[in-house]
Design goal:
Length: 130
């Protein structure tokens, strides 16, 4: 892989919001970790106040995010539900394997930041945790 190809891959990852990507092939491996470009924009005084976001539930890997469990057909959790640290709040589907997405802290589940069926990368924000 050339330096230009790595630069293009890094730019694509940053634009797509992918926080980390790892590639490996015979005799070559690459791990890119993308840092945000700058501080998040601040809310203006004209915006309506919202509940404070304490944490963000993030994807534990690369896969397809599922709000509805593929085996049961029922939502894993509902918006506004109280969750405890370590509780499963979603499912990441990686081929035929399912990996639980867990809450990083106690709180109330806010809006889903990724749609059901969205392909997500490691560290992609999936839920607000209030």
């Amino acid at each position: 892989m050339t330096a230009e190809e790595i630069e293009r891959l890094a730019a694509w990852c940053a634009a797509a919001g992918v926080g980390e990507i790892e590639l490996a092939e015979a005799g070559f491996s690459l791990c890119l970790r993308i840092q945000p470009a700058g501080p998040a924009p601040r809310a203006t005084a004209s915006e309506a106040p919202r509940a404070e976001v304490l944490k963000t539930v993030r994807a534990p890997g690369v896969g397809v995010f599922r709000l509805v469990h593929p085996m049961t057909g029922h939502p894993v959790v509902e918006r506004g539900q109280r969750v405890r640290k370590g509780e499963t709040v979603g499912v990441l589907q990686i081929g035929s394997c399912l990996k639980g997405v867990v809450a990083p802290a106690d709180g109330k589940l806010g809006v889903a930041l990724a749609e059901d069926g969205a392909v997500v990368g490691y560290g992609t924000p999936l839920y607000e945790l209030l």
